[in-house]
Structures are given as structure tokens and as C-alpha cells.
Protein 1
Amino acid sequence: MNPTPTGRLTPTADGHDLVLTRTFRAPIDDVWAGVTEPERTARWFGPWEGDAAVGRTVKVRLAFEESAPWCDVHIDACEPPRRLAVSLSDEAGDWHIELRLTASGGTTELQLIHHLKAPTGIGEIGPGWEYYLDLLRASLDGTARPDFDDYYPAQSDYFASLAVR
């Protein structure tokens, strides 16, 4: 498999937004369930546990990362079935991520927006999000999971080039 990178980088008042988009042949409620219900997120991102609500923190296990670490994820906004915003911190820094869903003609478009202070590390971040969104597609479609080796380092130069434009 040779997936084509789709991410784009947009300057904002606070930094940059890395935006990746996927369109699914699925109703918006099904895609929303795929990105919010723990048994469904376990198929493509990782399971989570805790009492989810805006302003609270849940634990998420990144199932497709080395050593499958658990991390704290703060829920900044949850507006079913259209918007979910979360933040977390790890050794790589602070992460602010937003999912926006729109329905149209039997399909659902999902935008993943990674709000960045600076595009540092985008050569590693971008391929990771492409991989995870294709894992989401595979979980919704019931198709085979993609292989991370098809994304990284193959897409790294594409994403790094977005930061210098």
C-alpha cells in the first residue's frame, strides 16, 4: 500500500492547524460512535475509561503505539454528533486536537484538526494522523488495518515541507 498524504497546514492567530480530512460512507451517528464509544475507539485508536464529560479527564490507551501507553485526555468540548475537542500532554508537549463531523448525502466528512503552537515535528505527527484516520476507516468499513510502515517515514518529507511553505 502506498497511501497519499492528505494533510494541510493552515496558519492561525495562535500558531498552525494541521488539518486532515476523511469522508466515510456512513451516517454521522455511526462515525460519531466510532470516535467516542470506548469499544469502537479500541478498534482504531485505543480503548478509554473514565467518566467522560466536558471538563473531565479520561484515560486512553494508545493501542497502536509501542508499549501501548495509557495517557490522560482532557475533554475540552463535546457536541454530539458534530464536534469533539480534547487535549493531552506528554513528553512531546501539549496536544490540542479537534474532530469536526458534517453529514451530506449519506456520507460523513470528518476533519481532524491538530492545533499546533509551531509546526515542529510535523514530519512525524502528520504520518501518524494519516495512519490513525485510515485505521478509523478500516474499523468503520470492516476492512484490513493499514500498516504504519506504509506511512512513516514515507510521508515525513511531505509533512515537513508544509512547515516551510
Note: DSSP finds four helices and eight strands in the chain.
Protein 2
Amino acid sequence: MAEKVLLVDDEKEFVEGLAERMELRGMNVDTCTNPEKALDMVNGDSYDAIILDLQMPGVDGIEVLKHIKKNKPEMQVILLSGHATVEKGIEAMKLGAMDFVEKPADIDVLTEKIKKAQARKMVLVEKATEKKVKDIIEHKGW
């Protein structure tokens, strides 16, 4: 099954180039250059992995990550930055980011991380489904 990815970065040329390379590897890629619009996309759809730039004008990647993890905790976020700091990386991981990668990211490494994100999301969704079924069985007066 093809991985469904949302790529969010304010650099349009970077987004287009990376999306093309990811699509050549069989992924379904949506792109967005506006962090506020990206939140709408996340709320309206489901992604296996969200590749998110750390530094964007307006709302930065850390704030977008907080919103995603609050509303869709099963979604896996990989932060991407050309100006990474250890402190920001630690903060991102504490907030629930799956990984933190520096630009320019090696496409093979990023592809492997996206595959791991898809697998991790599937496990989380299965656990949530099992819990719902168990709750229904326990609380339903058959």
C-alpha cells in the first residue's frame, strides 16, 4: 500500500522537487506551503506521515506539531530543518515528533522513515480500534 504523505514547507521549489522524488518512489504526496492551511488539510484527511519544516513564517513547525498531536495523535510527524538545533530537536521529540531530520535530507533515508511512520500509525490505529470494540462489548447489554 502506497504511503500517503503531507509535505509542508514554505519553500515552494523545495516542496515541488521533494514531492516529485517521493512520487517517483510510489508515494501519494500532498503538498502545502502555508502552515495554517496544512492544519486544515490534516483535520480533513488522514496521512501516514507528515513531513514538516521547522521554520516557516507565521506559525512554525513546533506549533503545527502541537496542533497535530492534540487533534490527531496517531499521525506521525517528521520535522525537517535547515537550521536545526539540539534544543529544538529535543523539544520536537518531547511533543511527539517521530523524528527530526536536517536538510538536505537523503531521499532514501527519508523514504525509510516514512515507511516506519506508516507502520507505526497502523499499529496505533489498530490499538484504538481494539479498544473501541472492547468498550462496545463491555458496555452493550446483549
Note: The CA atoms of residues 6 and 30 lie 5 Å apart.
Protein 3
Amino acid sequence: MSKVIRYLPELEGDEQVYVATLLKNMTDEQAEQFAHVYRSRRRDANTALILALLGFVVMAGIHRFYLGQIGMGLLYLFTAGLCFIGTIVDLFNIKKLTFEHNRKQADEVMHLIQGAFPAPPGQLTE
């Protein structure tokens, strides 16, 4: 858990626990590179919430585009957030949607980092 606090102190809750399990077997160099790339790819739940709220006033589906779900974003855009019902449901599930996006990004970044920065022989990696 100390690596996640050292490299990604802004993480909280389930995301922090999940990333801590990924960082557990990484070297310091890998963890530093992971934090740099992951920080640029992760999405903030509060920003997604604000974008979902904008769906009632400006344009529905912005939060889905923000979370990388282009197809769902287009669906929400052309159906007014599935007649606002989808947007309302998303407001209650926004933390889960954001966590799923961030978990997927963390997995991709982990594989990328382990391929680009292999651990020296004798050190454990996943």
C-alpha cells in the first residue's frame, strides 16, 4: 500500500486498493512509470458527475464520451440520454462507471509498463 501512496496519493477507496495490488510486485522504476502513464489516462468521478449533470441542460452523453464509451455516448446523444432515464441511472452509478474505466486503464498500463520496463532478474513481478 505504501507504493500507491508514494506514487499516486490522489487515489481513494477501491481504486487505491486495486492499484496497490498492481504496484505490489513492481520495481520502483516500473511503479514510477506506471504512475506517470496511469495518471494521464485515469478519469475523475467528480468530473464525470458534473458532465452527467450537464446532460440535462446542454448535451446528453458527454460523461460517456469522457469515460471512453463512444457508442454509448452517441446513443445518449441521439436519444436525449435515453429520455433522461439513462442519465438519471448513470448519476447513481457514476462512481462504478468511473472505477470500471480506471480499472481497465490500470490493467492496460500495467501490461504496457511490464513490457517496456522488464524487472531485473531475481525480482518478482506479476
Note: The first helix runs from residue 2 to 7.
